[in-house]
Amino acid sequence: MPTITINGQTLEFEPGETIIQIANRAGVEIPQYCYHEALTAPAQCRICLAEIWAPNPRNDNKVEPMMGGKLMPTCTTAATDGMVVYTDSPKAVANQKAVMEFLLINHPLDCPVCDQAGECSLQDYSYHYGRGVSRYEETKVKQPKKNLGPNVYIYSDRCILCTRCVRFAREIPESAELMIDGRGNQSQIDVFPGEALDNDIASNVIDLCPVGALLDKDFLFTQRVWFLKKTPAIDPITASGDNIWVEHNQGRIYRVKPRENMSVNKWWITDEVRYGWKFVHSDNRIEHPLRRQYGTLVESEWTRAYAQALEGLRTHSTDAGKRLALLVSPMLTCEEAYTLATLAREIDEHAILAVGPVPFDGEDKHFPPSLSTDDPDFEKKAFIKYAEKAPNARGVRRVLEAITGAPALEYDALLANHTHEIGAMIVTGNYPSEWATDALLDALIAPYAVVIDTLSGRLEEVADVVLPGATFAEKAGTFENARGMLQAFEQSIPCLHASKSEGQIATDMLALLAGLELEIPPVTSADFIVDEGPGQVPGATDAPALPRASLFNAGTVRAEMAGACEPLRVFATDVTAPAACEKRELDMEMVEL
Ligand code: SF4
Fold first, then answer.
1. Is the CB of 197 under 6 A from ligand 1?
2. What is the pLDDT of residue 250?
């Protein structure tokens, strides 16, 4: 394999790779603004320039400076065998300092009020590669703040004209809403007249912008980034399985960002996924268990609600010569589907197990749109927005099929063919908006209904007991995406209000059926939301102490599932877990004021 030496480090490479690709892969730092692996390389920002030496075939393959010793862009220079590259030589360092000085000439240096502060390449490179002082004494050019589209602002005077955003709009959604308007120091990024930056994946430009020019309207001024903790998660509202970071502080989510995974979502997420988490903190969350008393739903403690639910489920199903039905929402994890199905079969060994409704909206779309579906590398190259708006329909079906030994019963078939034999039903929801259909409400008028859901809705009209479930952010588990990939994710925030994960609810009810008592667990540090950031405002919310059986642990349930039957062995072999959380590296001393 050919080799190249970058700053003294010898690295192997595939023919055709550029110097910056090899360095990025090996973790050798070369400063870069305009370069991004997904986009074309215009060699525009000039900060990645390096001194490059290579064997000269016309001089007995002696290693000589290329281009007469001129600095060359590492983002567009293909590596050749025996090449020697210096980005730390005096000439390269002088260029880095000159580029930084040039970029900062008209930059407002408003880091204290900039959302990007703390995750800004301009800040980082200024610290590592820039000068301590500016020699510029003229008046800075002031540029406007503009509204580019429904989710994005531009603060033009922070822009360094790297053109990542322009190239993204042209090359990935191919909608090309963005351009550079004006010349010289009057140049600024703008939308074409009459256009808005409003495509399905538009907000990825916010992540691409290496400085604080392109800003997320939703996140603007809500939180300093160094207070945020990142938890690896999976797209919770569509079948994409897109890898995401949930960024949160003190039990509240502030934003969702893409987590790079080349076999799923590459570097991107849709705007639908980016902003689809809002229901987690909705005012419409079911906060406490409810149970029907004299015809009215009243707030209840968990133990009383459990007791009423279990008694009602049993007396109206097996005791009444009827069957119990369990509707498992495709919004739930595989582990929860398994535990709920175990609970249903414990109450009624002939319980009907069915998958909840799987919403669809439009058709699948792929990006770039010009990429042909006949392309042999389509799967590898395309980023797909899925029409299926549920993260785990396949996972739930897989679990139910393994338990019943038959194809999973779908929602419509359950309502069409089985309502006459159902005496009681456990209904799970967890959809991001109202989901109950008229047909379901009609089907639940007669049977005893225990509803486990997150948002208050029409099901409460017919429910006998309502138990507050937890959203994706408040639990760990596994989703199976549209490509059949099983991906595990972690819990981001503690359960809100008095809610519990559906897995915990099923675990508690199984324990009660076994004659065990629920207990309020001793409060440990894990039950509190701990904030470590210096300067953080105190006041983290205490997790409510709720009575429970043993803690529902997704990892333990996965191991149990894998051992239960052959079809579920995949949960021991095929589940991919997220890599350990990225640690924010402090390269300067934080001072508590
Ligand atoms: S707005 Fe950001 S991404 Fe776009 S050109 Fe300016 S610095 Fe680059």
1. no
2. 86
CA neighbor of 39 nearest in space, from 210, 153, 193 = 210
Whether 178 lines ligand 1, by a CB cut-off of 6 Å, is no
Q: Say yes or no: 197 and 296 in one domain.
A: no
CATH code for the domain of 217: 3.30.70.20
Phi (first) and psi of residue 361, to 5 degrees: -140, 110
In SS3 terms, 370-389 reads as: CCCCCCCCHHHHCEEECCEC
159 lines ligand 1 (CB under 6 A): yes
- Report the residue count for the chain: 593
pLDDT digits (tens, 9 = 90+) for 149-179: 999 999 999 999 999 999 999 999 999 999 9
On whether both 414 and 342 belong to a single domain, the answer is yes
Q: What's the CATH number where 41 sits?
A: 3.10.20.740
d(C-alpha 178, C-alpha 167), whole Å: 8
Q: Say what the pLDDT of residue 532 is.
A: 47
Residues 291-300 pLDDT 10s: 999 999 999 9
Residue among 40, 197, 209, 216 to mutate when testing ligand 1 (max atoms within 8 A of CB)? 209
With a cut of 70, say whether residue 421 has pLDDT above it: yes
pLDDT of residue 535: 46
Q: Please say which residue of 208, 227, 246 terminates a domain.
A: 227
Does pLDDT of 530 surpass 80? Answer: no
Q: Which residue has the tokens 């703390």?
A: 118
Distance from Cα 568 to the centre of ligand 1, integer Å: 47
Distance 204 CA to ligand 1 centre (A): 12
pLDDT of amino acid 522: 76
Question: Does one domain contain both 81 and 145?
Answer: no
Query: Which range marks the domain in which residue 221 is found?
Result: 110-116+139-227
Judgement on whether residues 356 and 466 belong to the same structural domain of the protein: yes
Residues 310 and 459 in one domain: yes
Q: What atom of ligand 1 comes closest to residue 164's alpha carbon?
A: 3
In this prediction, residue 538 has a pLDDT band, given cuts at 50, 70 and 90, of very low
The CATH number of the domain where 556 resides is what? 3.40.50.740
pLDDT reading at 132 higher than 90: no
CB 189 near ligand 1, within 6 Å: yes
CB of 148 sitting under 6 A from ligand 1: no
Domain boundary among 206, 227, 248: 227
Amino acid occupying residue 372: S
Q: What is the 3-state secondary structure (H, E, C) of 134-203?
A: CCCCCCCCCCCEEECCCCEEEEHHHCCCCCHHHHHHHHCCCCCCEEEECCHHHCEEEECCCCCCCCCCCC
pLDDT at position 544: 66
468 — pLDDT class (breaks 50, 70, 90): very high
